[in-house]
Specification:
The complex is a heterodimer of chains A (223) and B (234). Chain A is α/β, with parallel strands linked by helices. Chain A has two domains: 94 residues, Orthogonal Bundle (Methyltransferase, Methionine Synthase (B12-binding Domains), Chain A, domain 1), CATH 1.10.1240; 118 residues, Cobalamin-binding domain (Rossmann fold), CATH 3.40.50.280. Helices cover 55% and strands 10% of the residues of chain A. In chain A, strands 2-1-3-4-5 form a five-stranded parallel sheet, with helices on both faces. The longest helix of chain A is centred in the middle third of the chain and has 24 residues. The longest helix of chain B is centred in the middle third of the chain and has 32 residues. In chain B, a hairpin with a 4-residue loop joins β3 and β4. The chains are: A alpha/beta (223), B alpha+beta (234).
Chain lengths: 223, 234
């Protein structure tokens, strides 16, 4: 089977081409997007695992890399994520049937007292695009909510985000509560004012300077 | 409370809408292609927001009872604000404090939430940014009004400072809001001390003969995404 369709889906996600109706990018105007191409690939018998790993994950990895290197910014990344979601929607039945296996489950939320969501949203999209199931708890997430959700997904990894120096101090309370109910659960923290030293001092297992670094840490856990 | 110590303001979106250049700068849109959907969305959406009218704010002026810089404490009307050493230092010379609250209103927050719930994260992000810049612009106007009236009395004003920033604990919002109970903006606090509608700001401005306006101390803060980093000193 040739890989042309896979390469096309990869390109659509990289540049944020969602479907035929979407006029952006101008160079792809009128052409099918990740939505139609993924549907077509499945109809033509492409292995959904190949679509996931060689097109979606690989492309989002490239997008994350470009974001890390300041070659693209949040608006471009959000468009790529939308293109990825359009493709991922076609793969959902294969996740449900078990034909496509996810790497694991990632519970993520912005710590209580903090309403900032863009960093957490970018991480969620990147992690989903890396082949994980994401349970996004939103913002201002109380400790109890993290714990309740962890009980539903006991093998999940937990991500906690904070944008302010005055709210990152709430993170240790969540980690302590997680350790009490599930000592083996891995926890990663991130957000503008955090550092690797802070992460270590509050007992987190990992620290993500940016979404890409978070994904790389998670993928090491899954490998 | 003397009548003169409380002032409230109301703006239309037209009066305080963010300038296109400010949005481009804040969202780094000057770095995307000119046909990028983010630019088109903003171009189409800004005119649709002209009917927004619930952009409100108010401040109340009170005498400073204690300003302890070493301990980072400010006491007004017998209530203690734990503003931290950094903010206390910036308020040095203040004989009075204006406690302020302002909001861009519920509409922008609701719009962002709707887009977010529909998975339209780019649009939600853009509306959120418009809301942030709108409420800051409204607050710029309110601060300017305070500065003008203070100047007439031979007084200067500090910059504005908010709980959550410069190591001022967010939990102080509860005390702050108790000092301005009759604020007309309709902003309420959650248990976690967060403001609703989300696109709201609160804080203090120092007033006094020796009060001094300083730029925000971005050089000493590592928060690269903080909105105050984007605001030029007045």
């Amino acid at each position: 089977m040739n890989t042309q369709l896979i390469e096309q889906i990869f390109t659509c996600v990289e540049f944020g081409k969602i479907n035929e109706a979407s006029p952006y990018p101008a160079t792809m105007k009128g052409q099918p997007g990740s939505d139609e191409l993924t549907k077509l690939a499945l109809e033509q018998g492409y292995d959904p695992n190949v679509i996931l790993y060689d097109a979606l994950i690989a492309s989002m990895n490239k997008v994350g890399q470009k974001f890390s290197e300041n070659k693209i910014f949040v608006p471009q990344m959000l468009l790529s994520a939308k293109s990825m979601s359009a493709a991922m929607a076609h793969l959902k039945p294969y996740f449900s049937s078990g034909a496509v296996k996810r790497k694991g489950t990632f519970i993520v939320g912005t710590v209580f007292g903090d309403l900032h969501d863009i960093g957490k949203n970018l991480l969620s999209m990147m992690v989903e695009g890396a082949g994980w199931e994401v349970v996004d708890l939103g913002v201002d997430v109380k400790t109890e909510k993290f714990i309740e959700t962890l009980k539903l997904y006991p093998d999940a990894v937990v991500g906690i985000s904070a944008l302010l120096t005055t709210t990152m101090v709430n993170i240790p309370q969540v980690i302590t509560a997680i350790r009490e109910v599930s000592p083996a659960t891995k926890v990663i923290v991130g957000g503008a004012p955090l550092s690797a030293d802070f992460a270590k001092s509050v007992g987190a297992d990992g620290y993500g300077r940016d979404p890409q670094e978070g994904v790389q840490w998670l993928d090491k856990l899954a490998s | 409370m003397p009548e003169s110590s409380y002032s409230s303001f109301s703006y239309s979106f037209k009066e305080v809408k963010p300038a296109k250049e400010d949005l481009d700068d804040f969202l780094q849109l000057h770095l995307v292609e000119e046909d990028h959907p983010a630019l088109l969305f903003i171009e189409n959406t800004l005119p649709e927001l002209q009917q927004l009218a619930n952009i409100r704010g108010s401040y109340r002026i009170m005498d400073v009872e204690v300003l302890n810089i070493a301990d980072g404490i400010l006491i007004v009307e017998g209530k203690t604000l734990h503003i931290g050493i950094q903010v206390a230092g910036y308020l040095k010379g203040s004989e009075q404090i204006a406690v302020f609250v302002a909001t861009a209103g519920p509409e922008l927050t609701d719009m962002a939430d709707h887009f977010s719930a529909d998975g339209e994260l780019l649009e939600a992000y853009l509306i959120d940014a418009i809301g942030s810049l709108t409420v800051e612009k409204a607050m710029d106007n309110i601060q300017e009004s305070l500065e003008l009236s203070s100047k007439e009395e031979g007084l200067s004003c500090t910059n504005r400072y908010s709980p959550g920033y410069c190591n001022w604990p967010l939990v102080d919002q509860h005390t702050l809001f108790s000092l301005i109970p009759d604020q007309t903006s309709g902003v309420i606090l959650t248990e976690s001390a967060l403001m609703l509608p989300r696109k709201s700001v609160s804080g203090v401005i120092g007033i006094g003969k020796k009060a001094r306006h300083r730029d925000y101390g971005c050089a000493t803060c590592n928060n690269q995404t903080c909105i105050y980093r984007k605001i030029l000193s007045a």
